[in-house]
Amino acid sequence: MATFKVLNNIHYIGVSDGDLRVFDIMMETKQGTTYNSYLINEPGGITIIDGVKEPFTEEWLANIRALVDVNDIKYLVTQHTEPDHSGSIPALLKLNPNIQVYGSFMAIQNFEYINNEKFNGNVARTGQELKISPRQSLFFYPVPNVHWPDTMITHDPVNDVAFTCDFLGMHIAPQELFLSKVKDRGPAQEALTVYYDSIMAPFKKDVLKAVTTLQSLNVAMVLNSHGYLLDERKDVEHALNEYIRWSTIPTSEKVVITLVHASSYGYTTALKEAAVAALKEAGADVRVYDVPVNDHTEIVRSIEESDALLLASPTFVGDGIKPVYDVLNSLNPFLVMNKYVSAFGSYGWSGEAVKNYLARAKELRMKTVDEGFRVRFKPTADDLLKTKEYVLYFLTLVKKELNK
Ligand code: FEO
Asked: CA 122 to CA 388: how far, in whole Å?
């Protein structure tokens, strides 16, 4: 992609990766992506904001050279050191080792292990000013965990712009990068949504802090590092409002428990029904999902938004069952750590499912309760009573933890 002027002295020097179909090993990118990078062509203070993915280094350098002499570049800001934004930077520093690199504490530390050569690193603190010329300054605002610990927003008040890297980004690779010029907003909205779900969703609390930071800057334009540039205030506000909506977890006076259930012959279902009745009677809000019937994404979201998790599942051939593991393997430890979890179910031979699910839950740093609860084959009236007692004990622990 050729360089173009964004506004005043800000130029686009990024690249398009339109054929990319999988990002970060697991994320589908059916609309491709761009690695947006910017050059502020300020006399005496030429500044680069972020790099691009390493395979695009030559194209990036050509964009820079089309605008300035590499030897005249004074500053480079690395807002986030994931290699899709930092991979090309070492090549530039080889050409001009005098460039002063600015980034958060973590970004400068990370970049030492990406550059693998000495460089002029400068740690940027919250609100710190970098005067790139007598008339223009940049201000730095680290926003950790959006989505790496190193992430930072850079504010350019002269141009009324914020550079936000991944924050408010989207995997899409259009020819026209100004969102204001796009009539059909469907693909952009889809890309913003998918990007949030895949990249930002595990960090909802930190996302909300970053939203507050960006709102306080009240900028007219957001220059992100993937996809469309948000070049109108109304689109900045729309994206921020979407991030607020997606990051706000509904609160409840009641203890909210997601119960994931599977049963082959109805024995585990009988335990589940006893458990649900006891929990509801005790005032809990129990959200029951059947696997593999109910929507997987909805189940995962429910667990992330709940206070605790119960798994009701039989054992099959010495282990738990795939649909339950699929749920457990989709949970992000950042969102479920410290939540209470337990499991119960019917088994025929040796009953490993409960123990194995709890082992996985421990890997997610969830709080497990004892050994769970198991019943051999068809539950008796006494088994159902014990199931009720067990889940009420579980509820007591959750209530104590939450002060509810
Ligand atoms: Fe676009 Fe977190 O890298």
From this structure: 59
**How far from the centroid of its chain's Cα atoms is residue 323's Cα?**
24
Mean pLDDT calculated for residue range 206-224: 98
| pLDDT tens string 29-59 | 888 999 999 999 999 999 999 999 999 999 9
Contact call for residues 166 and 80 (beta carbons, < 8 A): yes
Which residue's C-alpha comes closest to atom 1 of ligand 1?
A: 166
DSSP secondary structure string for all residues of 94-163 = HH-TTPEEEE-HHHHHHHHHHH-S--EEEEPPTT-EEEEETTEEEEEEE-TTSSSTT-EEEEETTTTEEE
CA–CA dist 324, 321 (Å, integer): 6
- pLDDT confidence of 1, banded at 50, 70, 90? confident
| Burial class (CB within 10 angstroms; exposed 0-12, middle 13-18, buried 19+) of 92 | buried
Asked if 211 and 244 count as a contact pair (C-beta separation under 8 A), the reply is yes
DSSP string, 17-65: ETT--EETTTEE-TT-EEE--EEE--TT-EEEE----GGGHHHHHHHHH
Q: What does the pLDDT look like over 342-357, one tens digit per residue?
A: 999 999 999 999 999 9
Among 145, 387, 115, 395, smallest CA distance to 247 is for 145
> Is the shortest distance between the CB of 82 and ligand 1 below 6 Å?
yes
DSSP per residue, 255-274: PEEEEEE--SSSHHHHHHHH
Q: Is the dihedral of CA 115, 37, 238, 25 positive or negative?
A: negative
Each residue's pLDDT tens digit, 123-163: 999 999 999 999 999 999 999 999 999 999 999 999 999 99
**Which atom of ligand 1 lies nearest, measured to the CA of 147?**
2
Distance CA 129, CA 131 (A): 6
Residue 154 token pair: 């850079």
Pocket flag, ligand 1, residue 53 (CB < 6 Å): no
**What tens digit of pLDDT does each residue of 258-275 get?**
999 999 999 999 999 999
C-alpha 130 to ligand 1 mean position (Å): 24
CA–CA gap between residue 125 and residue 371 (Å, rounded): 47
**Residue closest to 74 by CA, chosen among 93, 102, 99, 49:** 99
Q: Measured between alpha carbons, how far is 61 from 383 in angstroms, rounded to an integer?
A: 70
pTM attached to this predicted model: 0.85
Distance 171 CA to ligand 1 centre (A): 10
- Burial code (b: 16+ CB inside 10 Å, e: under 16) for 367-379 equals bbbeebbbbeeeb
Q: Is the pLDDT of residue 252 over 90?
A: no
